[in-house]
Design a protein that fits this description.
Elements (H helix, E strand, L loop, with lengths): L35 E6 L3 E11 L6 E5 L7 E2 L2 H4 L3 E2 L2 H5 L12 H12 L5 E4 L2 E4 L12 H9 L12 H14 L4 E5 L7 H17 L16 H20 E2 L7 E2 L2 E8 L5 E9 L17 H9 L2 H7 L8 H4 L11 H14 L4 H17 L4 E4 L7 E4 L4 H11 L3 H9 E4 L5 E4 L2 H31 L4 H4 L6 E6 L11 H31 L13 H8 L5 H10 L5 H11 L6 E3 L7 E6 L2 E6 L3 H6 L4 H7 L5 H7 L16
Helix pairs in contact: 5-6, 6-7, 7-8, 7-11, 7-15, 8-11, 12-13, 12-15, 17-18, 19-20
Length: 660
């Protein structure tokens, strides 16, 4: 019910918590006088209170509660009485495993997490599920070699009784992979800012150390033979983080290091439990962030790192103006972020490039592509009168220097770049050159910038996978089951203004919730029935209705978006009309009130989200005009030419990554 702000919240807790008294439940009252209950609270979600008086049952219940110690009391509002629940004693103490509660309610879960959080115990368990609460600070002693050894040395009976920890979860996965020869998966989910990226890094760090047979995260890798294939692969797995965070993460309103893409990492082991290779797959890179972002946010870290960390010689060669003069960066409320050292991070990224054996020429080409994207953003267009056609456009005189700089680093002709941005070729026999107005030229410019970045991101992923998987085939053989997969994906998002990116992110989270429901609840019920164990009907938040709304064909929201992009004269207004007609009266869909703008509302499992329909069609297309694709396919810079060469014959090119 309440969300942590970017700074750490200090919970309000009664201290000390008295032990629950033995009370007798009267037959004519909902709660016994003296018992402890959780009462709804607007600020703290639920608070523990002691029952002062209670009369009636069900809807007729009248309840007065007071502090756990001391006197006094206040009546619970009638609207909240139905949400009052008995407090489990373990929840009051802050138990490490909530599956032991006699009644695991929302109130008990939240209070238990808050109690442990106040003691810097950020990890809690609910059976096989590990819950983590972002502390927004460094906690000494939480990731030490001693914690690592404790997890490694615990036997099968002792491991579940250890304090909940991400290392314990990773140890379970490692043992399942090696001992049972079964593929393992660690799914990390949560809303933006919950700490998923850091949890994923901790898992990978532990697994790398565990595979060496060493005694700790800090020193385990030393047991590997220096220069061995295993050492190289482990270094690659660890060093991939600064690269992928630089190119895939950004500052958002909730999180200074928010992942703007999803990542599945699969680590492969040999029969002795040592890492032999790894492979990562990316999902839904938020390409639109390259050209626009909300006030107070930033585009991807790598752009600021380049501007802050590149040498003067490199900046001169890239013809790169100061960061504050670059339009794609200048939209930021602040070019710098407290706690982030862009120059130091740039050095870390360059060191990681060396680990992955990127040559000097490749690193130079990479910098040129980044600089080309930034200078493209500075192109402005003026209207141009045409004698025999509608008015067209041209690059404004003030932007000519940026045009020449972008063309130079991308190794193409500036005149041909201007022509490709402002002229669209229609038809085949004959081809008709149609001048484009300034607004359409700007759309083409942004499409090119997004495509360049998406292609660069995919290229980097390819190089990382190439090195992490090199030389492993013979050792692993076909059908290897000794793998641990780890999914690190952006969490549920609901901002003051939400667009296609948030819909895709929330769709992914709905899919994860659907899988979670099937795996945790439905499969457990089936296992109990198969073993003849009595199992009550489990109550859980079934999101099947939302999934039908989103993915059913032919009228699901995703299908309607896909179809609208393909029709002539597609528009956001037409798309919204089709959505409203197809889902009028649907339980999980509502039209957005006109006072809030044009859009629609989806009732997700985590809450309702209003989506503004603006730019849904343009973002879904995301294709580069064929004129630009063909031009970039002739670039003298091999890296850029490789991005677009395959698309020279068709419209749209480069870009991968998805996500607008």
């Amino acid at each position: 019910r309440s969300r942590c702000p970017p700074e750490r919240r200090t919970p309000t807790l009664p201290s000390p918590l008295p032990k629950p008294k033995r009370v007798l439940m009267p037959a004519d009252a909902q709660f016994a006088v003296g018992s402890v209950v959780f009462v709804p609270d607007e600020q703290q979600a639920y608070l523990p209170k002691r029952v002062a008086s209670c009369t009636g049952l069900g809807a007729r219940t009248k309840l007065t509660v007071g502090p756990l110690s001391g006197s006094g009391g206040a009546a619970v509002p009638a609207k909240d009485v139905a949400d009052v629940v008995e407090a489990d004693p373990l929840a009051l103490e802050g138990a490490q495993d909530m599956v032991k509660f006699s009644n695991l309610t929302e109130a008990a879960l939240l209070h238990n997490l808050r109690t442990r959080y106040s003691r810097d115990q950020i990890y809690s368990a609910a059976g096989a599920i590990l819950l983590s609460v972002n502390p927004f600070k460094q906690i000494p002693g939480i990731y030490t070699d001693e914690v690592t050894r404790r997890c490694q040395e615990a036997d099968a009976k002792a491991l579940p009784d250890l304090p909940p920890h991400v290392y314990g979860l990773s140890e379970n996965a490692y043992r399942g992979m090696l001992g049972e020869q079964k593929q393992q998966a660690i799914l990390i989910s949560g809303e933006s800012g919950a700490g998923k990226t850091e949890a994923a890094k901790a898992c990978v760090k532990y697994i790398c150390a565990r595979s060496t047979g060493g005694g700790g995260v800090g020193g385990g890798a030393k047991l590997l033979r220096q220069g061995s294939h295993e050492e190289f692969v482990q270094n690659c797995i660890v060093e991939a983080n600064p690269i992928l965070e630089a190119f895939g993460n950004a500052k958002t309103l909730r999180n200074n290091n928010s992942s703007r893409f999803g990542k599945w990492t699969e680590i492969h082991f040999d029969a002795g439990g040592q890492i032999r290779s790894a492979r990562s797959t990316s999902y839904l890179l938020e390409r639109s962030r390259v050209v626009e972002h909300a006030r107070g946010e930033r585009t991807f870290h790598i752009f600021y790192q380049l501007c802050a960390g590149a040498t003067k010689q490199q900046r001169d060669a890239l013809k790169l103006p100061p960061a504050g003069e670059l339009r794609y960066l200048g939209q930021s409320a602040s070019l710098s972020v407290p706690g982030i050292d862009d120059a130091a991070d740039w050095r870390a990224v360059c060191a990681a490039f060396s680990t992955f054996q990127l040559t000097d020429a490749e690193q130079t080409s990479l910098r040129r592509v980044l600089a080309g994207i930034l200078t493209l953003g500075n192109l402005a267009f003026d209207a141009k009168e045409m004698a025999n056609a509608d008015d067209g456009s041209c690059v404004s005189p003030a932007s000519q220097a940026s045009l020449k700089a972008a063309a130079a680093v991308l190794d193409i002709s500036p005149l041909e770049l201007e022509t490709a941005l402002t002229i669209k070729n229609v038809g085949k026999f004959p081809v008709v050159a149609v001048p484009q107005p300034p607004e359409k030229a700007a759309v083409a410019r942004d499409a090119l910038a997004k495509a360049l970045y998406g292609s660069l991101f995919d290229w980097i992923f390819g190089r990382i996978n190439e090195k992490m998987g090199a030389g492993a085939g013979a050792a692993l053989g076909g059908g290897n089951k000794r793998t641990i997969g780890l999914l690190d994906i952006f969490g549920f998002e609901a901002f003051s203004r939400n667009s296609l990116e948030q819909l895709l992110i929330n769709f992914a989270n709905e899919k994860l919730m659907q899988y979670f429901n099937i795996y945790i609840f439905q499969m457990e019920e089936k296992e109990c029935r198969d073993e003849g164990v009595a199992c009550p009907q489990l109550q859980f938040a079934d999101n099947s209705a939302v999934m039908v709304l989103l993915e059913a064909k032919p009228t699901g929201l995703m299908a309607l978006i896909h179809d609208e992009v393909l029709v002539p004269n597609a528009s956001d207004a037409n798309l919204l009309t089709k959505m409203n007609e197809a889902h009028r009266g649907a339980s999980m869909y509502r039209q957005m009130p006109r006072a809030q703008g044009e859009g629609f509302v989806v009732l997700h499992f985590a809450g309702e989200v209003a989506y503004a329909i603006d730019d849904f069609v343009a973002k879904s297309r995301g294709a580069v005009p064929s004129e630009l694709s063909q031009l970039l396919g002739t670039s003298q810079l091999p890296l850029v030419r490789g991005f677009f060469a395959a698309d020279e014959e068709g419209g749209g090119g480069g870009g991968g990554g998805g996500g607008g």
